[in-house]
Amino acid sequence: MTAVRSAARALRGVLARSPRADLALLPTPLQALERLSSHLGGPRILVKRDDCTGLAGGGNKARKLEFLLGDALERGADTVITTGALQSNHARQTAAACAKLGLKCVLVLVAPAQIPTPAYRDSGNALMSRLLGAERVELKPGESAQSVMDQAAREVRRRGGTPYVIPRGGSCLKGDLGYVECALELAEQTLAQGERLEHVVLTTGSGGTQAGLLAGFHLLGIQPRVTGIAVSARCAEQVPRVVDLAAKTAQHLQAGASLPPEQVVVVDDYLGAHYGAPTPEMVEAVKLAARLEGLMLDPVYTGKAMAGLIGLVRQGRFKQGETVIFLHTGGLPGLFARPDLFGGGD
Ligand SMILES: *Cc1c(COP(=O)(O)O)cnc(C)c1O
Hints:
Elements: H1 2-16, E1 30-32, H2 34-40, E2 44-49, H3 61-74, E3 79-85, H4 89-101, E4 104-110, H5 118-122, H6 124-131, E5 135-138, H7 145-158, E6 163-166, H8 173-193, E7 199-204, H9 208-220, E8 225-230, H10 235-253, E9 265-267, H11 280-293, H12 302-314, E10 323-328
Parallel strand pairs: 2-10, 3-4, 3-6, 4-5, 7-8, 7-10, 8-9
Antiparallel strand pairs: 1-2
The protein binds pyridoxal-5'-phosphate.
């Protein structure tokens, strides 16, 4: 324990040298899900409430944006450019962060092949990013998000401004530091609350959340099993992505640190047909969390991650008496974009 404490102090020192904007409400609570745990009859399940980070509705991007926009401000940026789906939580929280810091925000948005309901275009994150004052550019078929972002950056420079481009999901070295910080927070919080830090289950999309957590735990010298439930790519693509991000993050924080690639565990059985595609397991998970715990999940990210957690419990992957922490990464506005998925019957 003292070894972890001194590693934590060292890691805090390194993180403190990164410029940071004050955007997120931290620490987020760690709560027991008693009724869900007893309903499933498996391990003790806790939830880490990163849906409560504030910043226009909460979610994991608030932690990443603290470091990303800290960097942007240090570089004198006046315009932030990023990309995501039409219902991107990352785009919404980036728009909120820019509003708060007085920066201009350009969102390059990717529409799905088929818009499922009018709400998908008008409600949820789309409504919020409009209200937050972001300039929204919808990608035309055949265009690449990167080239439209590059073009927007050139335009800003041409007018004498300074652009700052954030990749999809804010997953890059700076963004991932937000989840190194979360690893620290979890280590200290579990210690203070007398809980065990054995398993963490979370959504893995652009990968920075899982990568930052893994890098953080590794530098703390602890090895809870971190299972990413894939929502956008199969294991063949997702595992190397997370391995790469985690290794770079660990390296950046501590020269010579190398993260054993076998620590990157991804399960892609709950992804469904593609990113955003509903699954029966997701619908069941969203309803169970709501009705047993008053805990709201979303159809694109946390509903699938909870479906994964429930599936792993039912497969007996956790031992009786073990503790599993579900990282709630937010996403609630996305629920209001898909009222069609939860309408019928019970
Ligand atoms: C972006 C997002 C994720 C995925 O995080 P990554 O770092 O992109 O893997 C999970 N949940 C929600 C609600 C998100 O918006």
